[in-house]
Design brief:
By secondary structure, this protein is of the alpha+beta class. The protein is built from 13 helices and 15 strands. It folds into two domains: 232 residues, Phosphorylase Kinase, domain 1, CATH 3.30.200.20; 101 residues, Transferase(Phosphotransferase), domain 1. Helix 3 packs across helix 6 and helix 9 runs antiparallel to helix 10. Belongs to the protein kinase superfamily. RIO-type Ser/Thr kinase family. InterPro entries: Kinase-like_dom_sf (IPR011009), Rio2 (IPR030484), RIO2_wHTH_N (IPR015285), RIO_dom (IPR018934), RIO_kinase (IPR000687), Tyr_kinase_AS (IPR008266), WH-like_DNA-bd_sf (IPR036388), WH_DNA-bd_sf (IPR036390). Its cofactor is Mg(2+).
Length: 388
């Protein structure tokens, strides 16, 4: 299958990578904590875009997270969330709130303005912190490790779940932080009239929609399709198992025909569930001795998409082009497409019911969070009357 030397090499690299992550996080560094959170951070591996968040995370208190969450929710209705609105969520006096807001501003967790009124908003640093806080509270993971990759639309890093028993091995997962809001909101805005004029909310919405879509489709596909197991999802992020092996584009295969057949078999399985990956290439396929795994699902489409046939053909063509260029393997794409379609009979009407509108689902989820926040405020003894 894989070249024996390369297989051994990747195994050794993986071993030391995980061990350095574990010992760097748990032995050489004191754990990061506040009254409500324990999150181990391996400081040597901090990197741009999230490093500021990790550095400040240990200093954030429960009150700070309430302030950030209040601003997050307020941004659905305000470009700059007024201090009076934030106070409704913060459960603290105005003097204390102003002190914490100024501290958060200096730490680049919030952005403030005085024109035309005093208001605040958050960006990815604070949104990252809110997601990390939620994962730690859920005990999804307890340590941040090495960077896996940084792209224009996502950041991917290793995280670790501390074993419940001292003799057990830690579990290593992948944390993916979506950044679609930097570039993709124009497309989102075109499809949602009610977001017109709410560009201030754009990056939250676009990034969260992408993460929500990807996690939901992974739950539908796993374990029937060979993908990393989805573990958890919050806001603009998701957690999954580590993909096995190495990326197809950087691996020399000893039996490329077998791997090509396996990739095409997985495409067929996905199509049989009414799904097309819509971004498949040698860059999001992992290969190992055990087979292949496909990653990166936020752009998937269903067979009800008006250009489903074209998108399926493009995915297959990308795979065939790679094997043709690298291994001189030639396959008839028309024959492959016919085989994929012939063996799968899809009821499009049933398919539409199985895949409700992603944005409708996401809006319902965010509405539930508003209701949850209102209930918390009642527990704080604050008179909060929700405005429609």
């Amino acid at each position: 299958m894989l070249c024996p030397f390369l297989s051994y090499f990747f195994h050794i690299i993986s071993f030391f990578r995980i061990r350095s992550f574990f010992f760097g996080s748990f032995l050489n560094r004191p754990f990061v904590s506040d009254k409500t959170t324990r999150l181990y951070i391996s400081t040597p591996f901090l990197f741009p875009m999230i490093d500021d968040t990790l550095k400040i995370f240990k200093e954030l208190t429960k009150k700070d997270f309430r302030i950030l969450a209040g601003i997050e929710l307020g941004m659905r209705d305000f470009e700059w969330v007024p201090v009076s609105e934030i106070q409704r969520f913060a459960c603290m006096s105005l003097d204390k709130l102003n002190y914490r807001l100024e501290w958060l501003r200096r730490k680049k967790m919030v952005i403030g303005t005085l024109d035309p009124y005093e208001g605040y908003k958050i960006y990815f640093e604070a949104y990252d912190a809110l997601a990390l806080h939620t994962y730690v509270a859920r005990k999804t993971f307890s340590a941040i490790g090495v960077e896996i990759g940084v792209g224009k639309e996502s950041v991917v890093m290793e995280v670790l779940k501390e074993p419940e028993m001292a003799v057990a091995d830690p579990e290593v997962f992948i944390l993916k932080l979506h950044r679609e809001g930097r570039t993709s909101f124009k497309q989102v805005k075109r499809t949602r009239e009610h977001l017109a004029g709410k560009e201030h909310f754009s990056w939250i919405y676009a990034a969260r929609l992408a993460a929500n879509r990807e996690f939901n489709i992974m739950q539908k596909l796993w374990p029937d399709v060979s993908i990393p197991k989805p573990i958890d999802q919050n806001r603009h992020t998701l957690v999954m198992e580590v993909a096995q092996g190495s990326e197809l584009f950087k691996t020399k295969l000893l039996d490329p025909d077998w791997f090509l057949d396996e990739i095409l078999r997985q495409i067929k399985l996905v199509y049989g569930k009414g799904i097309i990956h819509n971004d498949l290439s040698e860059y999001n396929i992992f290969v190992s001795e055990d087979g292949i795994q496909i990653i990166d699902w936020p752009q998937y489409v269903t067979l009800a998409h008006p250009h489903a046939d074209e998108l399926l053909r493009r995915d297959v063509e990308n795979v065939l082009n790679h094997f043709s260029k690298k291994y001189k393997i030639r396959r008839d794409i028309d024959e492959i497409i016919r085989e994929i379609k012939t063996e799968n009979s899809i009821d499009l009407e049933k398919l539409k019911k199985e895949f409700p509108d992603d944005e409708v689902r996401l809006n319902a989820e965010m509405d539930r969070e508003i209701e949850s926040a209102v209930n918390e405020l009642e527990d704080c003894g604050i008179d909060f009357e929700r405005e429609n």
